[in-house]
Write a structure and sequence with these properties.
five-stranded antiparallel sheet, two-stranded antiparallel sheet, 107 residues, mainly beta, single chain, elongated
Amino acid sequence: MNSSYTGEKWTFGVTLRYYSDVSTDKNNYKYGLSEKGGDESYSFDGAFVAYLNAIYKFSKSLSADLGIDNLFDTKHYGGVPFDGSPVVASRSPQPLRTFYLGLRYSF
């Protein structure tokens, strides 16, 4: 879900994304069988993660950008490619809160 606002000086954007529950393999060392060292929970809970972007225009040629990924620092898991192959690992921890700040100048 996305929402944005654009004004004369300010632009804001908010994105809310849901990462679904993930079931694990019984051989998972942390969440699988207790004989393998797991806690037998077999799953990771899903989570909503918010992303925020803001731009302030000082002039036609100068602006400042702020981006915050995972605004509320939510622990969550998602799928990522495994070792460069087409296989997707679904139990990969995703980054916590990350800030991006930049200045943009146009000639």
